[in-house]
């Protein structure tokens, strides 16, 4: 049985934009689409009138709206819907584990740029064992660049980045578009002790090493997907900043993530965090091997 592309919806314009993106992705990959909405009946211990059936109907209405939208645009796509009787993060993490990929919607611009993703979205992305795609909506729509490249950030060894590159190559292949592989690098801290060494390396001393590292990581995937045209790009600088700049004309950005526990919650890594909040295209976050 084929795994589905899953999208979590909550009735917002952003989640409807995510549903549209997920439907297109499912159609490209020849997979079914599963639309889910997390709703758990939680009676309040305060004097407010609550009606369980009314709230349940509202939850089902959220699904119907998303289903009507995607069925109207993709009439041949197999679509199923389900209300999940669980809290949002728990429900979405469970769905992610049994899906091909999970899609979530995020809003475009706001006063708090550091919180565009939302706490639920960040928890799901940090904890998911499968790829999660964040679709940022602008006025309920997301920028569609059908001829744009797929951009992937490559870090670490070929083994560490294998899942990230595999996802990116497949995404480029099903779309029939080129892939831009980006590797950002910086000088090792020890070189800050010597200005002359730093200047020499900034002039290109370490760049050949970085280019070879990227080339070696890409080699098995070029062989597996010979139809994908690949551009290699190596630049010295912050990985997050370099990737955000390269996302300007992309239709999809693919990055890896290493989840880290922090005193105030789970972190997803600085590069993934930067891209999720500033890239102007959908972002796929793939757990490192």
From TrEMBL:
Matches recorded under InterPro entries: Rossmann-like_a/b/a_fold, Universal_stress_UspA, UspA
Signal peptide range: none
A Pfam family of this chain: Usp
Domain of life: Bacteria
Domain UspA: 3-136, 150-287
Annotated family: Belongs to the universal stress protein A family.
Cross-referenced PANTHER family: STRESS RESPONSE PROTEIN NHAX, UNIVERSAL STRESS PROTEIN UP12
The protein's name in its UniProt record: Universal stress protein UspA
Organism: Streptomyces nanshensis
